[in-house]
Amino acid sequence: MEIKERMDKFREAKNLSDKAFEKIIGSSNGNWRKAKTVSEDVLLGFLKSFPEVSAEWLLRGKGTMTAPGDEQLPYNEQLLSLCKSLVNNYQQRDEVMAQLASIVKQMD
After folding, report:
1. 83 class by beta-carbon count within 10 Å (0-12 exposed, 13-18 middle, 19+ buried)
2. Is 34 exposed, middle or buried (0-12, 13-18, 19+ CB in 10 A)?
3. For each of the chain's 108 residues, which pLDDT tens digit applies?
4. Alpha-carbon distance 15 to 25, whole Å?
5. What is the separation of C-alpha 36 from the centre of its chain, rounded to a whole number of angstroms?
6. Which structural domain, as residue segments, surrounds residue 91?
7. Are 10 and 38 in contact (CB under 8 A)?
């Protein structure tokens, strides 16, 4: 399960519509369903809006969805740095895949 899928699972657990969720996390109207990956801005908006979400679960899929006892997790620079790194890796992967697809089309 990818980060976007875990975010969507959390959205469903909170009984939030796509539109309400987008508004809370700062995503463009209608963009949540269409997006294949999560932008840095959306990820940061999610983390700021839902501090009860376990960072370990969100980023790695380990543990439970919320922090033990639903404690509020502090928003800190280390987490921000990790999130930026993950977003950059997804963006780079997508760029490489687009380049490969272009090369394959040219070879046909």
Report:
1. buried
2. exposed
3. 688 899 989 999 989 988 888 888 888 777 777 888 888 888 888 888 888 888 888 888 888 888 765 444 455 565 666 777 777 777 777 777 777 678 777 776
4. 15
5. 10
6. 3-107
7. no
Q: Measured at the alpha carbon of residue 50, what is the angle toward residues 47 and 54, in degrees to the nearest 5?
A: 75
The sign of the CA dihedral 85, 86, 90, 93 is positive
Phi/psi of residue 5, nearest 5 degrees: -65, -40
Asked whether the whole model's pTM tops 0.70, one would answer: no
How many domains does the chain contain in total?
1
- Residue type for 6, please? R
